[in-house]
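Changelog note: in this version the structure field was regenerated for every chain. One regenerated record is shown below for reference.
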Amino acid sequence: MIRSFARRRVVAVAFAAASLACSGQEAPKVPLGEIARGDSAGAAAAAHGLIGPAAKAELDSGNALFRRKDYPAALEKYRSASALAPQHAAPFFGIYMVARATKNTPMADSALADIRRRNGPLAPAPHTLKDSVLGRVHEVIRKKAMSS
C-alpha cells in the first residue's frame, strides 16, 4: 500500500514537472544591444552595424531578386551594396552566389578573393581526411545499407 502511494506520488510530481516545463514560458529576451561582445550573436550585430541601412536595403533587395532568379538585377543590387559598404563581406557573398548561379567562374573567383580580403582565409573543406579513412567510412556505410 505504501509503495503504491509512493509510486503515485512520484508519477504526480513527474507530471507536474513536465507540465511546468511545457507551459510555454520562454526564456527572457535580451535586446541585441545588450549581448556581450564575445558572443557570436553580438559579433553578428556588430558586423551588421558596419553595413549601414542603405547598404543593408540594397543587400536585402539583391537577396529577394536572387530568390526570384533575376540574376542581372540581383548583381546590380549586390554591387551597389558593396560600394556603400566596401568593408563588409556580405555583398560579395551575393556577387559570388550570382556568379555561381550563372556559371561565371572569373567573377566567382574575384568575389571569393574579395570575401577572403575582408574575412581572412576560409575554413578548410570538411573532407580533408586521407582517402584511406574516407574509403573505410564509405565501406561501413555501404555495409550498413546492404544489411538493411
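Spot check on this record: DSSP finds seven helices and no strands in the chain. The two ends are 48 Å apart (CA to CA).
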